[in-house]
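Backbone geometry:

***
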Amino acid sequence: MDENEALSMEELADMPGPPDDPEEWERKRREEWEAKVKPYQELRAQINEHDELMAETLYEVTLLELGVEEE
């Protein structure tokens, strides 16, 4: 729809109105946002775990190559 087109009465009726209870509206908005973000947070946690394991492994391999034994 471009700037010059007006909304039809049906389109206006389908649009959400102002929230009756702003606190309830905010709670719902947060829940929706958290549901959208959750898969990415879980993926980030997996990546962080993988990164930690890789760092530990590289550290141990480096010590082995240097001939240093860990206490």
Summary: The chain has a mean pLDDT of 86. Helices lie at 9-14, 22-66.
